[in-house]
């Protein structure tokens, strides 16, 4: 059986609405729990209430800043390697290894890792470009051939066949004999 690489694809990445909704939902839950705690039996405002309110507001600001600084650009599959291209890094010469962390069918959480083992986490949504979504999924899940540059290492590459148990067909190897 021959394996083929998925065709090249370039897919735009924007701030994930899915991630924004999840963050907002978690923050609103914290806000509601804090409000419930504040109004359920505490009749005086003391330092604990102020600390709780400040913590919830600080968490909201941090979540908003984190969401706004999420990666924006495009993910490119050349047929052999993944590249990340963003407004701050347009060249896209670094090759990345891509892995799928979560797959919700219309949203993927991907992890890109470069040769120096720096990781970039990104949420990819079908809504960014629905007409190329299936192309991206094929590229993400297709078995990738090694590029000529990566196959020129000084180690041997083996295609291992699955192990087969054969009963009585072979004699055990005699390890006591020495070969000349």
Walk me through what this model shows.
The protein is α+β, with helices and mostly antiparallel strands and 180 residues long. Among the domains are: 17-68; 71-141. It has three helices and six strands. The protein has a three-stranded antiparallel beta sheet with strand order 1-2-3, with helices on one face. A three-stranded antiparallel beta sheet has the order 4-5-6. Helix 1 (17-39) packs antiparallel against helix 2. The longest helix has 23 residues, at 17-39. The protein starts with 8 loop residues before the first strand and ends in a 39-residue tail after the last helix. The model is unreliable at 147-170 (pLDDT under 50).
Descriptors:
single chain; 180 residues; alpha+beta; three-stranded antiparallel β-sheet; 3 helices; elongated
Summarize the structure.
The chain is an alpha+beta fold. 30% of the residues lie in helices and 19% in strands.
State the distance separating the first and last CA atoms: 41 Å
Largest sheet: 3 strands, antiparallel
How much of the sequence lies in strands comes to: 15-25%
If you compute it from the alpha carbons, what radius of gyration comes out, rounded to the nearest whole angstrom? Answer: 26 Å
């Amino acid at each position: 059986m021959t394996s083929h690489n998925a065709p090249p694809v370039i897919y735009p990445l924007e701030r994930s609405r899915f991630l924004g909704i999840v963050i907002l939902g978690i923050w609103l839950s914290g806000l509601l729990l804090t409000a419930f705690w504040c109004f359920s039996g505490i009749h005086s405002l003391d330092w604990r209430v102020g600390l709780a309110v400040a913590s919830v507001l600080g968490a909201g600001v941090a979540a908003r800043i984190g969401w706004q600084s999420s990666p924006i650009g495009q993910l490119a599959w050349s047929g052999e390697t993944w590249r990340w291209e963003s407004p701050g890094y347009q060249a896209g010469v670094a090759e990345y290894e891509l892995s799928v962390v979560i797959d919700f069918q219309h949203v993927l959480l991907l992890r890109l890792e470069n040769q120096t083992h720096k990781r970039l986490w990104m949420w990819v949504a079908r809504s960014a470009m629905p007409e190329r979504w299936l192309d991206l999924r094929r590229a993400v899940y297709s078995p990738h051939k090694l590029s000529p540059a990566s196959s020129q290492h000084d180690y041997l590459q083996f295609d291992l066949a699955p192990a087969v148990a054969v009963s009585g067909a072979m004699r055990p190897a005699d390890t006591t004999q020495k070969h000349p």
